[in-house]
Amino acid sequence: MTRIPSTAHLALAVLVTAFGGASIATQQPGQGRATPPPPVPPQYAFLYDEGITREDTWNAARKTLPYESISLARRGCFGTCPVYSVTIRADGGATYTGERNATRIGTYSGRTYFGDFAQLAMFIERSGFMKLSDRYTAPHTDDETVVVTVVMRDGTTKTVSDYGRYGPPDLWILERAIDGVIEEMKWTSG
Question: Which pairs from 31-40 meet CB under 8 Å and 24+ separation?
Answer without folding.
Answer: 40/122
